[in-house]
Write a structure and sequence with these properties.
There is one protein chain. By secondary structure, the protein is an alpha+beta fold. It has a domain of 57 residues. Helices cover 31% and strands 12% of the residues. A two-stranded antiparallel ribbon has the order 1-2. The protein starts with 5 loop residues before the first strand and ends in a 25-residue tail after the last helix.
Length: 112
């Protein structure tokens, strides 16, 4: 069972010392009947909700990186790392400006 919800409360039972976590959701999970009727131990995982990137946007980004790579006589992975270096400054030390092997080849920085 997977669902989205919000954290409500965390408390400990004084007698049993067991923890009780309360969450709320606007939708009723359909598989809840199977869980309530079963006395089996459950694996529970709670993570922060993240909006997923669409596959179309990801595919389009790679198409654009390939087109940039063709214009700069490079490869799409070099473009990817160069763009990452511009966006994420913490990756900059790992990127060398001239990853291409030829002498007349341009880098992404030459475009700016």
């Amino acid at each position: 069972m997977e669902m989205q919800g919000n954290f409500e409360n965390l408390e400990q039972n004084y007698k049993t010392r067991r923890w009780m976590l309360t969450v709320s959701s606007e939708k009723f999970p359909t598989e809840v009947d199977e869980i309530i009727d079963s006395e089996a131990l459950l694996d529970i995982k709670i993570t922060k909700h993240r909006k997923k990137k669409s596959l179309n946007a990801n595919a389009y980004a790679w198409v654009l990186m390939q087109k940039i790579a063709e214009k700069t006589n490079s490869d799409k992975w070099s473009v990817y790392f160069a763009m990452s270096a511009k966006v994420f400054k913490k990756f900059y030390p790992y990127y060398s400006q001239r990853e291409c092997s030829g002498t007349n080849e341009r880098t992404i920085q030459d475009l700016y």
